[in-house]
Amino acid sequence: MNQETLVALYPVLAKLPAELLQRICAALQTLSIPSGTTVFDEHQPCRGFGFVLDGAVRVVKVSAAGRELPLYRVTAGESCIITSSCLLGHTDYNARGVADGPTTLALLPGKLFDEMLAEPAFRSFIFSLFSERLAELMQLVEEVAFHKLDQRLAALLLGKGRVVHISHQQLADELGSVREMVSRLLKRFEDQNLVRLGREQVEVLDPAGLRRAASVT
Q: Under 8 Å CB-to-CB from 201, ≥6 apart: which residues?
């Protein structure tokens, strides 16, 4: 693994001892993962700490019925906190990671991850990511628990531009719902002249009306 490439994506590694960084680069296993491939799944043991070099990994929680609740995305230069927690606690995964587009990962053995955590700079990097992700997950819990699906759908559409190129199933996945319910709400929005539905696209006609729909309590 090229040391300069890795440090450019993860500058915190430059603060590690040179000898440790050399061993890290020598031990990394580079993986090219096709889009849609499951990178890790629930109840699987963690194979090591992953550096995302290109692409992204979408982390989701899957119900017994197969419905997905998106938790977060890990892009180049970021770290998956569920992977870190599995390595720290020596536990199996409790969520699923899926390649969001063609993705390149560099996998580091868990033993070296333990050595890296002994370095203050890297330990601070990991725990700052834990803090950021926890804040995001708390916001997700608040949205799911306290906001109705139509509010969340309206807010989601407002954040994607005037013409949203997305399928009803993709919207349902992002909202942790089912396609039939999202399609029904979109049809209601269309009847209210808030949006115009097309093939795998939604055109926002009345942003102000959608904002009102998103804020109704």
A: 163, 164, 165, 166
Please say whether the beta carbons of 168 and 156 come within 8 A.
no
Q: Return the SS3 of 107.
A: strand
Check residue 79 and report its DSSP letter.
-
Taking only the tens place, the pLDDT of each residue in 58-80 is 999 887 777 777 888 999 999 99
Contact 144, 153 (CB under 8 A): no
Domains of the chain: 3-145 (2.60.120.10), 147-215 (1.10.10.10)
CA separation for the pair 62, 43 (Å, rounded): 12
Nearest Cα neighbor of 39 from 87, 90, 91, 82 is 82
The per-residue pLDDT of the chain, averaged, comes to 90
